[in-house]
Write a structure and sequence with these properties.
By secondary structure, the protein is α+β, with helices and mostly antiparallel strands. The chain has 16 helices and six strands. 56% of the residues lie in helices and 9% in strands.
Length: 342
């Protein structure tokens, strides 16, 4: 287990911009993550009754940690993919779940020791550390998503390795590209208009991409969406190369104004502050996601009054930051402002 002296010395990399009490609080939070992860590691190893898994986890983590630029949080090197596939085939599901739990714990321990993590902006540091505490405190090795092909594992590993960044109750990928196929996704006739959009934006990459994470998602309200967008603005400020942020979902469909008025209202901020929307069509998954939790939308769909569509929302960098600065200046006493760069 890391000592308090190491944590205090490592906090010095925060630099002159961070006040002393900020360094102390960050050091304490880092130590919490380290202690929780170490305790969880020992519990998992005791249950596994195999010390060999720890070295296997370290080997896999070394292969899996490096991301592939612009390829998304689910992209791994061929060596990492082959390594975990061979282990899964030879050792089975139970051993693989234990191994992947150890990988998540080891990734948390490694991440909080890095300068990259320590230099995160305050709001993002606090958001992300809350996610790490949750991961580090978990010893469950029975979850079905502890599988090398499951999206929930990739998102948890993304958080533990900083491939993904916590932004309130969502996660974001700060090394993402918009697929060029969106130019003709809504039909050939829309190509000139869509090409003009990306010409104005300066290209298809890099952008901040938003993702829903089922292990952290809560009820969508305008309040938590505002906090999410403030977090995204903070990440954009910290990473000048990013051209803006984007997400693609049925939640961006303008038809929600009548099909889901509360959700439509909760997403009004980008719509009212310079976001660009590109229709992406529909498919079985889009329809299923839109109707799954709403008898009202299901009824509209059954009666032919609502056909869920997937839209790409692109919010240009300057407009995100402009909105965030204005919101902070207009809401100086809001609890979310203190860590939003005000």
């Amino acid at each position: 287990m890391m000592s308090r002296s190491w944590v205090n010395s490592s906090a010095s990399v925060l630099g002159a911009q961070a006040p002393p009490d900020d360094r102390v609080s960050r050091a304490a939070l880092i130590e919490d993550v380290l202690q929780l992860a170490e305790c969880s590691r020992l519990v998992v190893l005791h249950r596994a009754r195999s010390g060999d898994l720890e070295s296997v986890a370290a080997d896999y983590l070394a292969l899996a940690r490096p991301g592939i630029p612009r390829a998304g949080y689910r992209a791994y090197s061929a060596q990492a993919v082959n390594y975990i596939a061979r282990f899964h085939t030879s050792q089975g599901n139970e051993a693989t779940r234990v191994l992947l739990r150890l990988v998540l714990l080891a990734a948390c321990i490694e991440l909080v020791r890095t300068e990259q993590y320590l230099r995160l902006p305050e709001r993002i540091f606090l958001n992300h550390t809350a996610m790490l505490v949750r991961i580090a405190a978990t010893t469950d090795c029975d979850a079905s998503w502890l599988n090398p092909d499951h999206d929930l594992f990739h998102k948890e590993f993304g958080l533990a390795s900083l491939r993904l960044i916590a932004a309130e109750n969502r996660v974001v990928d700060a090394n993402s590209a918009i697929p060029r196929s969106v130019v003709w996704k809504s039909g050939i006739w829309s190509c000139p208009r869509n090409l003009a959009v990306f010409f104005r934006l300066g290209g298809f990459s890099p952008y901040l991409q938003t993702h829903v994470h089922d292990l952290t998602m809560s009820r969508i309200t305008e309040g938590n969406r505002i906090q999410f967008w403030l977090s995204c603005a903070e990440i954009l400020r910290d990473r000048p190369a990013l051209k803006g942020m984007f997400g693609a979902s049925w939640l961006e469909d303008p038809a929600l104004e009548f099909a889901a008025p509360r959700l439509y209202l909760a997403n009004r901020v980008p719509r009212d502050n310079g976001a660009i929307y590109v229709p992406m069509g529909t498919d079985e998954e889009t329809v299923g996601n839109a109707l799954r939790k709403s008898a009202f939308r299901q009824s509209l769909y059954d009666n032919g009054q609502y056909r869920p569509q997937r839209y790409l929302m692109i919010w240009p960098r300057a407009r995100v930051i402009e909105w965030a600065d204005r919101w902070i200046s207009e809401n100086p006493d809001h609890p979310g402002v203190a860590s939003a760069g005000a």
